[in-house]
Design goal:
Blueprint lengths: L1 H28 L1 H26 L4 H33 L4 H13 L3 H22 L2 H6 L3 H7 L3 H9 L30 H31 L1 H12 L4 H44 L7 H11 L5 H17 L4 H26 L7 H15 L1 H20 L4 H7 L7 H11 L2 H15 L1 H21 L5 H21 L3 H10 L6 E6 L5 H11 L5 E4 L6 H11 L4 E5 L5 H13 L6 E5 L6 H11 L3 E3 L2 H18 L14
Parallel strand pairs: 1-2, 1-3, 3-4, 4-5
Length: 656
């Protein structure tokens, strides 16, 4: 039976892997359809808050969509017009910057030591080539003699001897294609120019391709906005399989996360671009005579490029920095631009983005990088733009669909590992320092009782479970229990001031009640009693009977000491038959006080277990450390109210 289950699990894993491969292949080969659809979906997420706001103001749905689309079109048209005008101006000014580039190359060459000579010569050659290219006409450039040709045509000593031994036939004609110069090439191929119609078709295909994609994106976005409610109902009906609650919550979460991310990203990029353009203009006005060239262009480019994770901000910083280095003499303007961009990036990345984004995406930083690489490989530059929204959808699907839960674990911002399992991992690795830090942080934030229930007790139970399943041998389990015991002992200093606890133990020891603790069936339960002892500092004392004492002997010890109450620790799995026998032995010896059975865990058959323990003599049954500690403290308060008031230990001082 176990082998059959293993085979089924293997077949299921292979089927899932094949499904992933087929899905990736479909996304790659059908990208001409999926890319416009994804861009349209992204645009609809960005515009849907505006459409919803207009619809709430009483504007009909279609009119709200059309008005939003017109505003978006006008905004983008204005931006692209401004971008085209600035690019045209920049292209016309580029030839004016070549002299400054040559000077910068020569200056850099002078700072590079031995390599400087080569770089300096290279800069001079480039300068001379540029100057000669501008002075010579095309015909003159072709007629210029090649100095290497004359050198190559002069015979060597070996050629002279061979010519004397084997003289060539006398002829006055020289071959036309001997390869001796550019005028006499070895091979000539005539290339016919493209026909006007073919050239026009090529240009039209280059221009119309992006326009067709933009048209498809616009059509998809409009239809998604107009029929968003109808599409939502259809998707829920197809995907839900009757679970409408989970499907609706998943779609709402994905839509809200993507919309918040896009709105926040648009706000940040717009403000960043405006500040960059203003900053570059101020630098040009204060530090140069002619101003910084095309400052508006670099601001607009920054707005669009910053939508691309990681690569976009880098490209947005390189362009103005390169212009500052190429246009202006010296390095003061360049360094000022670099400082401006670095300051804006630091403020944006460390203050503004965490404040605006918050948990809008729900994906980790490494997931953003991985997604950018994957979607960029799959869909190119458009994949870089869509990487974060698509990854958000995958993470949200993993939250609600069990088959995709691995995506949430790998890509999600919060790792779905409970504190107890993280503490157990530190114990397995032998990392006592990290385990102690985890306990200290959890105690400071949640308190000692919650730390016992959420961190320490689950780790102890996991050690027992792995030992019973033969994942841990006895030596490893004992090592982990010893390590956990040392960390539990250190918890005494984490819960408060050790000096105050020492004063309480020395001065108030006679006045604090003392109870007795017992283990049911395993020595690890002694660690639970130690936790109760630490939690009861200042309230009660706990004496522990060794786990190797027989139940009858334990009953006699308890009867002889007659404590106000007895607590029996049970760390499942198992232990309830031994606990019932111990309770019966204690009652048979004549003890009449309350017996608390602290069974730490969740039990489906709680009522049946409690009835069995009550028949054996137990008074109460608790299922958590916090519940056990609260029960002990309440019983001690009840015992203190019912007991007679003891005389004061210290005599009152006479009044002056």
């Amino acid at each position: 039976m176990a082998k059959a289950k293993s085979d089924i699990a293997t077949i299921a894993a292979v089927a899932q892997l094949l499904g992933v491969v087929v899905a990736v292949a479909a996304l790659f080969f059908a990208r001409e359809v999926f890319i416009p659809l994804a861009l349209g979906l992204l645009l609809s997420f960005l515009l849907s808050p505006i459409v919803d706001r207009l619809h709430r103001w009483g504007v009909p749905n279609i009119a709200a969509v059309v008005a939003t689309a017109v505003l978006a079109f006008l905004f983008l048209a204005g931006l692209f017009s401004l971008l085209g005008r600035e690019l045209t101006t920049l292209v016309g000014q580029l030839p004016e910057y070549r002299h400054e580039l040559i000077d910068k190359a020569r200056g850099f060459a002078g700072l590079t030591g031995g390599v400087g000579g080569s770089l300096d010569e290279l800069a001079e050659d480039v300068s001379e080539a540029i100057e000669e290219g501008t002075e010579l006409e095309p015909g003159e450039a072709n007629d210029a003699e090649d100095p290497n040709a004359e050198q190559a045509s002069s015979p060597t000593l070996f050629q002279k001897w061979t010519d004397r031994l084997l003289p060539e036939p006398l002829t006055n004609e020289k071959p036309d294609n001997d390869g001796s110069s550019l005028k006499r090439p070895l091979y000539v191929k005539t290339v016919q120019p493209n026909a006007p119609l073919a050239s026009w078709a090529t240009t039209a295909g280059t221009v119309l391709g992006p326009l067709a994609t933009a048209g498809l994106v616009s059509v998809f976005a409009l239809f998604l906005l107009i029929y968003r409610d109808d599409l939502r109902d259809r998707i829920i009906a197809v995907v839900s399989h009757g679970d409408y609650v989970t499907t609706t919550e998943a779609m709402n979460e994905a839509g809200q996360r993507i919309s918040r991310y896009l709105i926040a990203q648009t706000m940040i990029n717009t403000v960043y671009g405006i500040l960059l353009a203003v900053g570059l203009s101020l630098i040009g006005a204060l530090m140069t005579d002619d101003g910084f060239p095309n400052a508006v262009l670099w601001g607009v480019l920054a707005i669009f490029l910053r939508y691309i994770p990681y690569l976009g901000p880098t490209a947005a910083a390189i362009f103005p920095s390169a212009i500052a280095l190429a246009v202006f003499p010296g390095y003061s303007v360049f360094l000022t631009v670099v400082v401006l961009i670095a300051t804006m990036e630091l403020i944006c990345n460390n203050i503004v983005e965490p404040w605006l984004y918050g948990s809008s995406t729900g994906i980790s930083a490494i997931a953003v990088i991985t997604a950018a690489v994957f979607w960029g490989w799959l869909w190119g530059p458009v994949g870089l733009l869509l990487s974060t929204p698509l990854t958000v959808c995958l993470v949200v699907a993993g939250r609600y669909v069990p088959s995709f839960r691995i995506l949430t674990t790998l890509l999600g911002e919060d790792v779905q590992i409970k504190p107890g399992m993280r503490f157990y991992q530190r114990l397995l690795a032998g990392d006592e320092l990290r385990a102690s830090e985890l306990l200290r942080e959890h105690i400071e934030s949640q308190g000692f009782p919650a730390t016992c229930d959420d961190v320490i007790v689950p780790a102890l139970k996991r050690i027992r479970l792995d030992q019973d399943a033969d994942h841990l041998n006895e030596a490893d389990a004992n090592r982990l229990f010893a390590l956990a015991g040392g960390l539990i002992a250190d918890c005494k200093s984490m819960t408060g001031d050790p000096a105050d606890e020492a004063d309480a133990s020395s001065d108030d020891a006679p006045r604090l009640p003392t109870m007795i603790g017992c283990t049911s069936h395993h020595f690890s339960e002694t660690l639970v009693l130690n936790l109760l002892r630490i939690g009861g500092v200042g309230t009660f004392h706990l004496d522990v009977i060794d786990d190797d004492v027989m139940p009858d002997d334990a009953g006699r010890i308890i009867t002889d000491q007659d404590p106000p109450m007895v607590v029996i620790a049970v760390l499942p799995k198992g232990g309830f038959p031994q606990t019932r026998y111990l309770c019966q032995a204690i009652r048979d010896e004549g003890y009449t006080g309350p017996i608390i059975v602290s069974a730490l865990g969740r039990f489906k058959n709680y009522d049946r277990l409690f009835v069995g323990l009550r028949k054996a003599g137990a008074t109460y049954m608790t299922t958590s450390f916090t519940q056990t500690q609260n029960k002990i403290e309440s019983l001690f308060r009840r015992h203190a109210r019912s007991a007679p008031i003891a005389p004061s230990v210290a005599a009152a001082e006479p009044s002056p």
